[in-house]
Amino acid sequence: MVTRIVFFGSPDYAVPSLRACLGLPDAAVVAVVTQPDRPRGRSGAPQMTAVKLAAVAAGVTTFFQPEKVRRDTTEALRALAPDVGVVAASGHILPNHLLEAFPYQVVNVHASLLPRHRGASPVASAILAGDVSSGATIMRVVREVDAGPILAQVETHIDPLDTAGTLTDRIADLGAQLLAHTLPRWVAGEVEERPQDASEATFAPKLSRADGTIDWSQPAEAIWRRVRAFHPWPLATTTYRGEPFLVHQAWPVDLPAAFTSDVAPGTVLPGDGEDLTPLLPGRTARALVACGTGALALLEVQRPGKRPTPIEAYLNGDRELIGSRLG
After folding, report:
1. CATH code for the domain defined by 3-204
2. Which end of the chain, N or C, is more open, meaning fewer C-beta atoms within 10 Å of its C-beta?
3. Are 177 and 154 in contact (CB under 8 A)?
4. In the chain, % of residues over pLDDT 90
5. CA distances from 110 to 52, 135, 235 (A)
6. Does the pLDDT of residue 179 top 90, yes or no?
7. Judging by DSSP bridges, how do beta strands 133-140 and 106-110 pair with one another?
8. What is the pLDDT of residues 42-60, one digit of tens each?
9. Separation CA 325–CA 220 (nearest Å)
10. φ and ψ at residue 133, rounded to 5 degrees
11. C-alpha span between 197 and 214 (Å, rounded)
């Protein structure tokens, strides 16, 4: 028997899971449901989602790209006689009439260790919360967001240098490997699901550009986590000379309270040039921003219309950053 799969996914995160489905023996991806082609880039020309690009390259020919999944989409999918649905960040809300169209139901590859960080931004939320680990969860989809029973999980350590981008990529690969192992066993009835403990649930809301705004009155450790959590989007942002000033990379520094007690948060202080951490060989403290507690060593910054620049090179062209006040 060939398991007939409908895959729901859109961004880069979903591509490894799509490829895992395509690579399964005795299985076939009979359709892909993804977001509509949308204008991107300077040309404004409509571009396919990452999942559609990968599916086309793999020879998939049947696509559905609704803004919202309605009954016409469900009936068209039902006509394909699918066995199971697989979701990985499709961006669609799946109604009951769709979930009921699959004899083996619909499973989701979620980028957190559920029940922690249910919702749209699980990776960023894990970094913001200071979690020491994250991972991927294969769960059965129910109408409540990310609340379905768990089929399998895989864990990974959150490295101090991880950003949302690097951690998402790693979880995507781990989740795809877990999916390839779990899905055939699920269809064969060999997986016993377990309910989530709702009392331990936390929620990861959808990010907006405004979330990246830095509040320098917060502790340096918290701001450092925001820099990592919001990279590559929406990026940690402050202002300098009345213009946006992006912080791509930074490192928290413990300073004696007396050192910054009379300095307003956001003030850029000269660093002592000492090495910051063995995790960043060769990177030294050159520009420190006073925070509510401690300071943040700037490592890579960007001004409007410019490329991201290491702080050493940036200071060569703008020594006035030292002594200024950001935000």
Report:
1. 3.40.50.170
2. N
3. yes
4. 91
5. 19, 9, 23
6. yes
7. antiparallel
8. 778 899 999 999 999 999 9
9. 16
10. -150, 160
11. 34
Q: Which of 67, 73, 87, 62 is nearest to 7 (CA)?
A: 87
Q: Cβ neighbours of residue 13 under 8 Å, at least 6 residues apart?
A: 88, 89, 111, 168, 171, 172
Cα–Cα distance measured from residue 215 to residue 292, given in angstroms and rounded to the nearest whole number: 9
The H or E element spanning position 47 is: strand 46-47
Q: Which amino acid is at 292?
A: G
Rg of the chain (C-alpha set) = 23
Instruction: Round to whole Å and give the CA distance between 120 and 255.
Output: 36
- The model carries a pTM of 0.95
Q: Which two tokens stand for residue 131?
A: 């979690």
Top CATH class of 209-321 equals alpha beta
Strand, helix or coil at 14? helix
CA distance 132 to 167: 12
Q: Which two tokens stand for residue 62?
A: 């049947």
Q: What is the DSSP string of 268-312?
A: EEE----B--TTSTT-B--EEEE-SSSEEEEEEEE-TTS--EEHH
Start and end residues for every CATH 3.40.50.170 domain found in the chain:
3-204
Q: How many helices and strands in the chain, by DSSP H and E?
A: 9, 17
Letter for the amino acid at 39? P
- According to DSSP, the residues that pair with 138 across neighbouring strands are 109, 152
Which residues of the chain are in CATH 3.10.25.10 domains?
209-321
Q: What is the pLDDT of residues 104-139, one digit of tens each?
A: 999 999 999 999 999 999 999 999 999 999 999 999
